[in-house]
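Key idea: predict the complex, not the pieces.
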Amino acid sequence: MMFSIAKLYLRTAIGFLMKIINWIGYISLTGMVLTTAVNVFGRYILKKPLLGEVDLVQLGMALFGGVAMLIAANKRHHVGVDILLVRLSRPNRILLQRFSSLLGFLTLSVLTAGVFLNGLDTLKYGSTTDTLRVPQGPFEIVFSAFIFLFCLTSLVQAFRPEELEVKGEGGPQHES
Amino acid sequence: MSPEMVGLIGMVVMLILLFLGVHIAVCLTLVGIVGYAVIQGVDKAFIMAGMMPFHVISSYTMALFPVYLLLGELADISGMMRDSFKAANVWVGNLRGGLAMASIVGGGFFAAVSGSSTACSALITRLSLPSLLEHNYHPKLATGALSAAGTLSNLIPPSIGLVVYAVMTETSLGKLFLAVFIPGILLTLMFMIQIHIQCRFNPKLGPPGGATTAREKLHAFKDAAPTLILFTVVMGGIWFGVYTANEAGAIGTVGAFLYGLYRRRINGQSLSRAFRNTLGIAGMIFAVIISAEIFSNFVVISGLSQALAQWVGGLDMPPVGVIICIMLVYIFVGTAMDTLTMILVTLPFFVPLLNHLGIDLIWFGVLVVVQMELSQITPPVGLNLFVVAGMVKEKNISMGTVFSGAWPFCYTMVIFNALLIAFPQIAMYLPGLMK
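Result:
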């Protein structure tokens, strides 16, 4: 009973978190598009280009990129070669999918640690963007947080492989 | 162990993991980090792995992906594609095989505002399959044309495949966009001629549709105008140096959004879906590109690509011979591998070789994109074929029919690629005029 209540709370919390993350993605993407468009408008119509447009887009990409990768992982938008996978029996497919997700978890753990430590260094040395002089460190640390969530998603998927969710034939890993 | 040997072992391990179904982003990152650690030491590999993701993602060039993906999504929900397809139907639908040709032209219109091959095939299939079957088109020709229509997506700018190529090879995206323009038009015409010839020899393949008057044809321009205007704004701005490729994408996205609002075709739900799709696809591309950059670093320090360049240089083979060999490798690999995977795995090896031989990377980019699209319709793993086959399944059209329908289009694309190799000016004329 306690377990199922805790599971329900966890699910609600994850759902809420994903909603917020989605919104961060929508807002950063809209921000990047508008910043770029306003810069062109300012340059040709108002004869006054937007200062630091490139900086803003780059920082927006740090947020958008992290969110996008997390969402792609969550939706299982992976690119892979399934030529062998589709020829295997279902239990073997499940096994390979678990193996793939676990390998993903391990690799992403290394990346998360690397990006986080690099972010701390950036923070320490006070690296900033070229024009607006916005510190890059905090953005890099936020980015590492998204990779960490990406990493956790891989771990969850190792326990819940695609095959168990799809319950169908084939290993539809292609997404383009 | 020599770095080249580590590189070779890394390559083999990467291919094994890839064929075991491990996601490409994981394969490339894992092999890249481990290989780098073996050659340069664990500390340096860890630093490289920590720096690359943020360095790659926070670059201005990478913003091209979400911007152009969103442009395509907004152009779709604002109904531009549907209207353009209607216009294409009016223009050529009355010819023998005309409805199949209209699917190709519709694909060309879709390509003018979007860069996703599979999305194009899916949309064109949804729009034109009912009328193709209603007019008794043979399922082979119908499904072949629908699959082939998608291949134009990366050959008429903007194209996501070209953005990937530009990011990986650090070439000018504006020049690449211009370079594929004439080839894109040429391939559209070649597909139409091929359909015409097929229907001439076998009239049962594609009977003519209903006749349309000159007035109706003229009137149909109104439907295609928004797509043509948007395309002109995006590409014209790049050509005349008014704005960069990023800016062109942003202007196009705002334009498509305003048009959708004006036509009252955009609502909260469709907009949210467009953003969600953009996030999902961009995220997948980002993960793969970051991993490819990590892998590329490993390939560079292993000296494998330089060794390959030296070896090919020692063969005394003319550059065109090398290009033909690379294209043959792509044809072969493309039958078993996803196009994005194929390009990202091979470019770190081929680009230093091409630089060594003095081959223009813009021209090669066009050839690569044609090859990418060819593998989208080459059985047995062409992704467009799966998309179309999935959508026509309920009409009792088998996968085998879709496969056999695609072959004539594959041959046309091979001839087309041969033409591009023989006459590089087809691709290089417009970039040469760029301001």
